[in-house]
Amino acid sequence: MNQKQLQRMRDGKGFIAAMDQSGGSTPKALSYYGIPDSAYSSEKEMFDLVHQMRTRVITSPAFTAEHILGAILFEQTMTRTIDGLPSADYLWERKGIVPFLKIDQGLAPITDGVQLMKPMEGLDALLKNAVSHRVFGTKMRSVIRQANKAGIHRVVAQQFEFAARIAQMGMVPIIEPEVDITSADQAQSEAILRDELYTQLARLAPDRLCMLKLSIPAQDNFYRDIMADPHVVRVVALSGGYSRSEANLRLARNHGLIASFSRALLEGLSAQQSDAEFNATLAETIREIYSASVT
User: What pLDDT digit, counting tens, does each position of 152-195 carry?
Assistant: First the structure.
């Protein structure tokens, strides 16, 4: 584990840029960026285009360590290069931004009000590849749709089982049990989730570390005690379907909680923009998300 990166993630001011759209979400991300599906005819062409989009964001003069602590990459981004360097090396060596890798392979169907992660085939090989690319940590997502105790227990247990394997490889796992912000019982789900997180964190060895990526809670500052747990490097928040302005307002009310936005980060960017327009839009977005993250 890179101790400089760990110190930055633990103590630095800023947020995490989620640049990890995968096969299922890439067409939508490209369409928001102004590239219709008619612009590509194969998966390879699609991923080439999304890498160009990500490269434009990451190499922008607005994308710096002044406001951004880390960036979450998709596997194909990790294995490609940016300006002649492997993507993770470019982030850290050129920008001072800590690299993470999305490792889950999507969601299973809803059972007991939740969606567990699908089986992760080839996980050991992927983790070894991430270590060889000098990636600091990983991210994996489950979704909680209803306040079902049995289902939420399974979600958190599965997350921590995989987190143990990731930690054994010397990386810091980001555990992401997202609560659906559109559910009628969001607050009840979050109460059950917090109890399950306490239980799992209490079982960890003293030197075991993790991060948490959670929905912005229905009750402000609901996760403050979790943030103080010595095993937790940082608690970050997803935008969860809120507009960027709404997500920022809610985030700013949760002291110590920082952003890890994906769609909200790219909102307003377009392939048709000049570099000056693109960089100005991205700079304003980054400043807004940073401001909401340092309250």
Answer: 999 999 999 999 999 999 999 999 999 999 999 999 999 999 99
Main-chain phi, psi angles of 234, to 5 degrees: -165, 150
CA atoms in the 13 A half-sphere facing the CB of 179: 25
Among candidate residues 102, 178, 190, 213, the one labeled active-site is 213
118 is catalytic: no
Q: Which of 102, 139, 176, 196 is catalytic?
A: 176
Q: Which domain holds residue 187?
A: 3-293
Could you tell me which residues are beta bridge partners of residue 115? 143
Is 139 an annotated catalytic residue? no
pTM of whole model > 0.85?
yes
Distance CA 266, CA 181 (A): 20
> Which residues fall within 8 angstroms of residue 200, CB to CB, at 6 or more apart?
156, 157, 160
Query: What is the count of structural domains for the chain?
Result: 1
